[in-house]
């Protein structure tokens, strides 16, 4: 499973990239709004750090405007993936862009039916928002599992990005069912590496070593 960082914060991206396990980054308008600076310049800097897929989202809602915006975003770097919402206009734009060789991450996917349409339109990625589904009492992991089954049934090439990750258990669930990618917030990455028994073990080893050299 590939691991993406869900943020637009350069410091967070530099930190996780240094771990040697980062495969890509996803951003969205809400994350970008938290950062100072020009949208395109931030995306370029992220691409230069990660050197892997970096999702930047359009803010237009009409198909022709989405296409125009996506073409501009794709010029930023070879690593740019354009995020487009799962709407009728989003599908229209995705079909046009996919034929032009521009990778699309269809975002805000909440059902296997939407996932089918995303794949048929040529999206390179589909992003189910698991945490938001959980919030309304619809187990997100079940929706993702259905998506995996459908994509495997018909050999769709669209990769699933397990999004709206809220805690380490989501990452475990994603890995167990064989999701292509999980995009994870910085705070959850930190939680993944930490375990109380690791800390206890390090303390014990150091205590024993100090006894030996005294």
Describe the structure.
The protein is of the alpha/beta class and 214 residues long. It has a single domain (2-213), classed as Aldolase class I (TIM Barrel, Alpha-Beta Barrel), CATH 3.20.20. Helices cover 54% and strands 17% of the residues. The chain has 11 helices and 8 strands. The protein has helices at residues 10-17, 29-33, 39-50, 63-74, 88-99, 112-121, 130-135, 140-153, 168-177, 186-193, 196-213; strands at 2-6, 24-26, 54-57, 80-85, 104-109, 125-128, 159-162, 181-184. Strands 1-2-3-4-5-6-7-8 form an 8-stranded parallel barrel, surrounded by 7 helices. The N and C termini lie far apart (46 Å).
Main attributes?
8 strands, single chain, globular, 214 residues, alpha/beta, TIM Barrel, 11 helices, 8-stranded parallel barrel
Oligomer: single chain
The average pLDDT is 97
Radius of gyration: 19 Å
The topology string of helices and strands comes to: EHEHHEHEHEHEHHEHEHH
Residue share in β-strands: 15-25%
Shape designation: globular
- How far is the N terminus from the C terminus? 46 Å
* Helical amount: 40-55%
- Strand arrangement in the largest pleated sheet: 1-2-3-4-5-6-7-8
**Name of the CATH superfamily:** Aldolase class I
Can you summarize the main beta sheet?
A: 8 strands, parallel, barrel
Q: Uncertain runs with pLDDT below 50, 5 residues or more?
A: none
- The CATH architecture can be named as Alpha-Beta Barrel
Topology:
Elements: E1 2-6, H1 10-17, E2 24-26, H2 29-33, H3 39-50, E3 54-57, H4 63-74, E4 80-85, H5 88-99, E5 104-109, H6 112-121, E6 125-128, H7 130-135, H8 140-153, E7 159-162, H9 168-177, E8 181-184, H10 186-193, H11 196-213
Parallel strand pairs: 1-2, 1-8, 2-3, 3-4, 4-5, 5-6, 6-7, 7-8
Helix pairs in contact: 1-3, 4-5, 5-6, 6-8
